[in-house]
Amino acid sequence: QGTRDHPPDQAALRDRLLAAVVACFKRHGAAAIDTPVLELRETLTGKYGEEAKLIYELQDQGGELLALRYDLTVPFARYLAMNKITNMKRYHVAKVYRRDNPAMTRGRYREFYQCDFDIAGQFDPMIPDAECLKIVHEILSDLQLGDFLIKVNDRRILNGVFAVCGIPESKFITTCSTVDKLDKIPWQDVKNEMVGEKGLSPEAADRIGEYVQLHGGLDLIERLLQDPKLSQNKLAKEGLGDMKLLFEYLTLFGITGKISFDLSLARGLDYYTGVIFEAVLLQQENDHVEEPVSVGSVAGGGRYDGLVGMFDPKGRKVPCVGVSIGIERIFSILEQRAKASGEKVRATETEVLVATPQKQLLAARLKLISELWDAGIKAEMFYKKDPKLLKQLQYCEDTGIPLAAIVGEQELTDGVVKLRDVATREEVRM
Amino acid sequence: QGTRDHPPDQAALRDRLLAAVVACFKRHGAAAIDTPVLELRETLTGKYGEEAKLIYELQDQGGELLALRYDLTVPFARYLAMNKITNMKRYHVAKVYRRDNPAMTRGRYREFYQCDFDIAGQFDPMIPDAECLKIVHEILSDLQLGDFLIKVNDRRILNGVFAVCGIPESKFITTCSTVDKLDKIPWQDVKNEMVGEKGLSPEAADRIGEYVQLHGGLDLIERLLQDPKLSQNKLAKEGLGDMKLLFEYLTLFGITGKISFDLSLARGLDYYTGVIFEAVLLQQENDHVEEPVSVGSVAGGGRYDGLVGMFDPKGRKVPCVGVSIGIERIFSILEQRAKASGEKVRATETEVLVATPQKQLLAARLKLISELWDAGIKAEMFYKKDPKLLKQLQYCEDTGIPLAAIVGEQELTDGVVKLRDVATREEVRM
Q: Which residues, given as ranges, of chain A have pLDDT below 70?
């Protein structure tokens, strides 16, 4: 449940999508790493907040207690700490596992690919953070998914908001995960959860509400920097100062048109410490389709300066910022688009079918195809002793093989091959 | 335990190796499929004989009982049956899981990649089987791993041997797995296991010994076809007839020089029903190295005509033959070779570093690198406001970046960029 096989046409489409994403990561100078699907259970413990219950655990069959990785970020942090690496730009494309309620039509699975790009190291503020947003912008533009918006916020600003609204620090994280629902449910429901479930006072919730419903650009940042309450809060001031710097860099990249500073963005995970962001598609391409696929967020990420230190025996910190591309949701869109357009995805790359028009010519086919393979040419033949020529040509048409190399008795005698263009039916002897 | 992280240089080397294998699979017209790492436990039950105890099971956290896939063959058979596919040529490159005793220096891990190519469908005998052997031959030749030998046998011949030696059918499979050890331990030890553990009579074991120590080519096949006992056995006769046909096709492919018909080859898995084969490297390239990596088999496979039927509610059979490339062992060899040669594997593909020689030029770098990225050029820059030029050029040399695009105050004024060839130190303004 919640997993799926990819048949050839889907696997081919997905390979192309992953290749486009990896091309962008490489363009930004990232190196690939690979880590096991299995992690020690203790590695994953305490990293995912309320979502920890969704971790798949392996049966205790003796030896170490294991679990399946929940994302690629925690294994990356574990890898950095284990190898004492303090500076690295890496990408990782691999499957992760979550015992979530699957919603397959929306592209939500229990086994799914993540495509992560992260920058680890102590650098001048906001330069790597800006690059992560540039990457999201490049990938979503390259894939031509339609209009999109990248929402940006900072955990320090949110925490500053909570502080000036009188929330005790012990409730920051849990309040964060309630605020994060503002893109799915109305403010009144969020407020009810804050008061009813999280135990905030209605007044405190209302004060939070005044802030977290704000969104804008540089103007909003400037306004909040002047806000009498927020400007008194050290964390919020730091966050707002960095947000201003970030917008400066994004302006140089020429991408602020698709960026929104949005105080309702909170992101669920515990480990974020600074900038956070999330990209959403603004509308479906196929608005005329009766039930457009609702896809939600297609990329997300942020800064997590404390995670690596959790794996270091001496607690040495390595600041990190990274982005994860929601490849499964994008894949759902591309798949639906391919279906709607009736476009046929070729699942193989075969260039030529080695065919015979008469019987008793299997040996000739085997010899010729062997020569083609050895010359690096992608070739197929029928696994029958005496196939009919018509069936062989039909197979080319069905599977999109452009050429047929035909050896008949005459060709054998003359020492030639008849090469047929399947679409035009033109033939040359060579 | 038994798993590992791949750091960037290893990941880059492995990606190149996998690409070479996949290129061969595509050359033979195979399509990719992808199946989940998780399978239902019941899917894996009863498919792996004595090795079943090595299957990783997931904890029962409610819902279905799951396990990690043990190979890619059983999931492929499950996929064919589930989708009622009777004809398919597919490849699959993915990780599989075995709770085995790891032997990391020999390339044996608990999590490792498999690269499988399989042909499913009812065809004329031995044509797809011959293609599988051709593929092994092509891949091992392409990778230049040194001399190799592909051992071939047929389960029907082995079963025929067991029958004419007086072994009850109930003991065929277990006797098979003992015979399979003949490449690692001497005949006397194999015999002792047959008699002591498997309960065969010493005389029967000796009769088996006379057959399973034979190996050769077409001459041996002919001789056994005349063998007074074996020629009376229907299964053996069928197997030998097909083996003769196989050698005919392999002769047309021109690869019999590296093929040996070897009656000691048995292969451990339950599901084989016909031709079986295994490729071994004959010697290590670096014989002068003090402790050459012992790698054993680097590819194996065979025919399994009954497996798909086990997943079909009506037991409908789909004959299959396939090959699995032992990529981890090959990777161990290539890695050791790269180390020995001191060859440096570049882990990134960055073409140009955007650099500045003076302070206060971060904005210029951000603008230029953004243009380069948008033009599809692989570019990096330092995440510092004012890095030293020497450090920037040193980084290019260390990581193999061939070009530096330098913007200084003069270049900004003139509206040009200084492009420096890192190796030759030549510079052009453009």
A: 107, 284-295
Query: How many contacts does A have with B, using Cβ atoms within 8 A?
Result: 201
From chain B, the residues in CB contact with A327 under 8 A are none
Which CATH number does the domain A352-429 belong to among 1.10.10.60, 3.40.50.300, 3.20.20.140, 3.40.50.800?
3.40.50.800
Nearest chain B Cα to A245, which residue? B363
HSE-up of residue B102 (Cα within 13 Å, Cβ side)? 15
Question: Coil, strand, or helix at residue B126?
Answer: coil
Nearest CA in chain A to B75: A5
DSSP states along B313-361: TT-----EEEEEE-HHHHHHHHHHHHHHHTPPPPS----EEEE-SSSS-
For residue B82, list chain A residues with Cβ-Cβ distance below 8 A: 5
Distance from CA of B290 to the nearest CA of A (A): 28
pLDDT digits (tens, 9 = 90+) for A244-257: 999 999 999 999 99
Secondary structure (3-state) at B428: strand
pLDDT tens column, A159-208 = 999 999 999 999 998 898 899 888 889 999 999 999 999 999 999 999 99
Nearest CA in chain A to B134: A370
Could you say which residues of chain B have pLDDT below 50? 289-294
CB-CB contact of A190 with A157 (8 Å): no
ipTM of this predicted structure: 0.90
Mutate to test the interface with B, among A58, A91, A346 (most CBs of B within 10 A): A58
CA distance A405 to chain B (A): 15
Nearest to A384 among B123, B131, B385 (CB): B123
Q: Which amino acid is at B270?
A: D
Picking from B79, B119, B374, the nearest residue to A5 by CB comes out as B79
Binding site per annotation, positions of B: 71-73, 98, 114, 118, 267, 271-272
Tell me which of A35, A348, A386 to substitute to probe the interface with B (most B C-beta atoms closer than 10 Å).
A348
Fill in the DSSP letter of residue B93. E
- The binding site of A for L-histidine comprises 71-73, 98, 114, 118, 267, 271-272
List chain A domain ranges: 8-341, 352-429
Domain A8-341 has CATH 2.40.50.140: no
Contact B279, B140 (CB under 8 A): yes
Residues B391 and B404: their CA atoms lie apart, in Å, by 12
Separation of alpha carbons B149 and B261, rounded Å: 10
Q: What's the CA gap between A373 and A383, in Å, rounded?
A: 16
List the beta bridge partners of residue B119: B89, B321
Q: From the CA of B108, how many Å to the nearest CA of chain A?
A: 14
Q: How far is CA B9 from CA B335, B346, B350, B379, in A?
A: 10, 7, 14, 19
CA A124 to chain B, closest CA, distance in angstroms equals: 5
C-alpha–C-alpha distance, residues B22 and B13, integer Å: 14
pTM for the full predicted model: 0.91
